[in-house]
Amino acid sequence: MTHDEAMTHDNPRPSGGADGGGADVGGVDGGGADVGGVDGGGTDADQARHRVRELLAAHPPATTPRLDFLRARFDAGLAWVHYPEGLGGLGAPRALQTVVDAELAAAGAPDNEPRRIGIGLGMAAPTILGYGTDEQRRRLLRPLWTGEEVWCQLFSEPGAGSDLAALATRAVRDGDDWVVDGQKVWTSSAHLARWAILIARTDPELPKHRGITYFVCDMTHPGVEVRPLRQITGEAEFNEVFLTGVRIPDSARLGPVGEGWRVAQTTLMNERVAIGGGRVPREGGMIGIVADTWRDRPELRTHDLHQRLLRLWVEAEVARLAGERLGQRLAHGQPGPEGSAMKLAFARLNQEISGLEVELLGEEGLGYDDWTLRRPELVDFTGREAGYRYLRAKGNSIEGGTSEVLLNIVAERVLGLPPEPRADKDVPWKDLPR
Predict the structure, then answer these.
(1) Burial level of 415, CB count in 10 A (0-12/13-18/19+)?
(2) From the centroid of its chain, how far is CA 135?
(3) Using one digit for the tens of pLDDT, what is the confidence trace for 284-305?
(4) What is the pLDDT of residue 228?
(5) How far, in Å, CA of 14 to CA of 256, rounded?
(6) Cα 63 versus chain centre, distance
(7) pLDDT class for 423, splitting at 50, 70, 90?
(8) Residue range 181-195: average pLDDT?
C-alpha cells in the first residue's frame, strides 16, 4: 500500500455510481462496484455452485495451466460475482463470492495471489469500474484480476502526503495527449507494475481540490523512472517515481477533466477497506502468532505480559467481528467512512501486538535475519520474525492515510463533529504558500 492520504473536510463523498467495495484481502474477491445495471437478483447459491461445477468440468485445475484457469474463471463470471456480466461477474449479490471461493478452494483451484496484486484488486478495479469507459473496463479488468498486469498508485508526493490535494504533478493538454511532469513517492509495487492510477493537476488556477484529473498511466512509457526507497526493515517495497514529459493519451483518463479528486475518493475509501477491513479467522494475523508463542513457551510468561495479551486478544477479536460487519455492509452498498475506522484499529493493534511480541521473546526478539536491500513483491507480516513485524508495523499508521487524518474523517463524517477551519478552501492552488 502507499502512504496516500486525503483531507476530506470540505469534499463530498464520491458519486456517479461508484461503489468500489474493497478487497477481501484474504480471498480472491478483490472488491468492486455494483454499477452497470447490476441488480443483484439474478443468481442464487445453487446457481453459483452450478457455474463453478461447469468451470471445473471444462477446466480441471489439476491439468489446466494456472493462468488459463484464471482466465476461464473470469470469463465464466466467477472472478467477482457482483461485477457486471462480461467483466468477470454475474451481476449477483456480493455475498455469493464466499460460496464460489469455497467451492473452488475445495476443488484445489488456484487463486490469483490477491496479496501480490492487492492495489489492482482493491483500488484500481473499483475505480475503473465506477468511472472507466466500456473500452477501459474490457481492456484493463481481466489482466488485472488474473494478475498478468500488476498495478501501483501514483498519488502521494514529497510535498503532498497528508494533504494530498496539494499535489504539484502537472498534466498539460497537448492535442490528444496529456504531458505529465512531477514526482510521486511511497509507491508500492512500482518496480513490478505495468499500470498505475495517477492523479495530476490540470488547472492550477482553481482551488487545490479542483483542477485535478485522474489518469491511467502506462509504467513502460518513456519518461517514467522508478527508484527504490529503502525502509527501516532493510527492504525497498516502496519507490519514488519520477515523471518527465510522460505522454498519456486522453483516452486513458478516468472521469471528467478536473474531477480527479472526486474519482480519487473512490480509490482512497477502498484502499482503507483493503488495508483494515480484510476478513480473517479468529486468532488470524499477528495476534495468533503471539498467542501461539505464549502457549508454546511457558518460560517466557509474566503476569504483566499475560494481562496485556488478554487485552489485545479481546481487542483483536472485536476488530475482527467489526470487519465481518463491515463486509456485510459492503455487500449491500458502497464503502464509507467505516473503512477509516477499521484502518485506524488495524494500525494501532498491529503496533501494540508487535511490541508485545518483542517483549515476550526478550533477547530473541531483538534479532533480525537479513538487512540486505530487497525489493519484495508483497508485505509478509506472518512469514518473517518478530523484529521484522515490529519495524514494519510502524508504517501501518502512515500508509493508506495517517491515523491523524483518519481520526479527522471519523470525527467529521461518522460523529458529525464540525470540520476544522480551512483557510485555503477557496484559494487558487497557484497562490498557496509552498
Answers:
(1) exposed
(2) 23
(3) 889 999 999 999 999 999 999 9
(4) 96
(5) 13
(6) 33
(7) confident
(8) 96
Which of 101-105, 278-282, 350-354 has the lowest average pLDDT?
Answer: 278-282
Grid coordinates standing for 221? 512509457
For residue 13, give the C-alpha cell. Answer: 463523498
CB atoms within 10 A of CB 292: 11
- Res. 4: pLDDT tops 50: no
How far, in whole angstroms, is CA 211 from its chain's centroid? 25
CA distance 179 to 244: 8
Angle at 414 between CA 319 and CA 420, to 5 degrees: 125
Residues 271, 352, 357, 399: which is the catalytic one?
A: 271
Say if strands 195-201 and 151-154 run parallel, antiparallel, or are unpaired. Answer: parallel
Tell me if residue 271 is catalytic.
yes
